[in-house]
Amino acid sequence: xxxxxxxxxxxxxxxxxxxxxxxxxxxxxxxxxxxxxxxxxxxxxxxxxxxxxxxxxxxxxxxxxxxxxxxxxxxxxxxxxxxxxxxxxxxxxxxxxxxxxxxxxxxxxxxxxxxxxxxxxxxxxxxxxxxxxx
Amino acid sequence: xxxxxxxxxxxxxxxxxxxxxxxxxxxxxxxxxxxxxxxxxxxxxxxxxxxxxxxxxxxxxxxxxxxxxxxxxxxxxxxxxxxxxxxxxxxxxxxxxxxxxxxxxxxxxxxxxxxxxxxxxxxxxxxxxxxxxxxxxxxxxxxxxxxxxxxxxxxxxxxxxxxxxxxxxxxxxxxxxxxxxxxxxxxxxxxxxxxxxxxxxxxxxxxxxxxxxxxxxxxxxxxxxxxxxxxxxxxxxxxxxxxxxxxxxxxxxxxxxxxxxxxxxxxxxxxxxxxxxxxxxxxxxxxxxxxxxxxxxxxxxxxxxxxxxxxxxxxxxxxxxxxxxxxxxxxxxxxxxxxxxxxxxxxxxxxxxxxxxxxxxxxxxxxxxxxxxxxxxxxxxxxxxxxxxx
Lengths: 134, 390
What we know:
The complex is a heterodimer. Chain A has one domain: CATH 2.40.50.840. Chain A starts with 15 loop residues before the first helix and ends with a strand. Chain A has one helix and seven strands; from the N terminus they run αβββββββ. In chain A, 6% of the residues lie in helices and 37% in strands. Chain A is mostly beta strands. By secondary structure, chain B is α/β, with parallel strands linked by helices. Chain B folds into two domains: 7-117 and 211-236, Peroxisomal Thiolase, Chain A, domain 1 (3-Layer(aba) Sandwich); 140-208 and 238-386, Peroxisomal Thiolase, Chain A, domain 1 (3-Layer(aba) Sandwich), CATH 3.40.47. Chain B has helices at 25-40, 61-68, 84-97, 131-134, 141-156, 160-174, 188-193, 221-227, 257-268, 285-294, 303-307, 326-330, 338-350; strands at 7-14, 49-51, 74-76, 103-110, 196-198, 201-202, 212-220, 233-243, 277-280, 364-372, 378-386. Chain B has a nine-stranded mixed sheet, with helices on both faces. A two-stranded antiparallel sheet of chain B has the order 5-6. In chain B, β10 (364-372) and β11 form a beta hairpin. The model of chain B is unreliable at 118-124 (pLDDT under 50). The chains are: A mainly beta, B alpha/beta. Chain A binds chain B through residues 4-7, 9-10, 15, 37-43, 47-48, 66-75, 77-78, 81, 84, 86-88, 94-100, 111-112, 128, 130, and chain B through 120, 129-130, 132-140, 142-144, 146-148, 150-151, 154, 195-201, 245, 247-250, 252, 375-376.
């Protein structure tokens, strides 16, 4: 577990396969059965070809830092979080996902750096996906 | 069909205050509406089209039409955050050109300093489908724009000192604006020495947070001629565009100005080189830098060099910009800087900017709005404004 706030997301029928996967320590992504596109953010509608037939497949959990920012002052649940790293990670499967880089020296991070997924359990049948240097 | 020259801005008004504790939000909308109509020599009863965005209270346009006692043929409330009012101006021109209305009023107002809303983004995200994938990582508005700045630096070698040049130019202009929230000039060193908010953005890379508002009145050619005071500003071109997360493959190094700009230039029949003055949306310094590249004032990746060495400083820089001090120093009312971008462009074309920053013989001005969030989804609109002889 990282030391960042862990907010339990509201799960609905469309996103349940994704969040169920996180509870098992897996990053499960929807793939379009019509065109093969790896869909992000998770949904049952392909933004590439507009088909609605998807299958859910476990991702590698590996990626690289596309961009990051060391945020000095958070808001809301992050108000007391101190300094933390907001980032986009480009998954090996293609999507660029907003996330945090945790368990790291923020000043030593760089764009392009390899990272792997870690999970923070929400205690409510889901976990937040975060990344740490690989 | 083109809107070129079919509609003109004949009234413009910016609320002079930056903290407005004693007025309600509808009262500020009403004050700026009255100011813009007075500037045009028109009255509320002349208005047959009203435009407002998400800053309007209650039921938005319906609530405000009722509050103001407007009898309308057209009501329009496109919501794209801070760029909404540039979308509205383009839509108003098209509706005027089509004969659907003849006098359009566009208002905006906000009270983040004294209204309890506080700083932050201008759009609600409750129930948004993207919410769960963006909300739980501590995203802040500066943090999000910092992601764009970091990537631009990585790909093009842009530096913090180059971004600081944008703030410096805005501050040099703001010193001539008696209403500016931050009226004192700053140096590149002072920007770089200001506290880091979200690497690589410093506090002085960020816009101000102010109460305030503004309004414009647009009319058809016939009414503009009948007003005949020589202060009509023609709308020559409009372009708008939406950039979202690009199906989960977001690219943070450009903005939708890449598409809205060419559409506006084409309609106006002009090129970036023809522009005498530009109001560029400046929520953060990086917003300006990417937008200047995307509008075609320089090549992608060359923005850092373009803004350096006083490139943006009026009246003689390569591209005199935000001569009111912009959102970076003057006013970013309600966390929405679009209306004030139009207002300063109107002042420049009218020759009514402060003499120290008035661009000589300013015939063609550009106003550009960037709304939403550069790190997620953005709506942008570009307007080309011209003098009566343009």
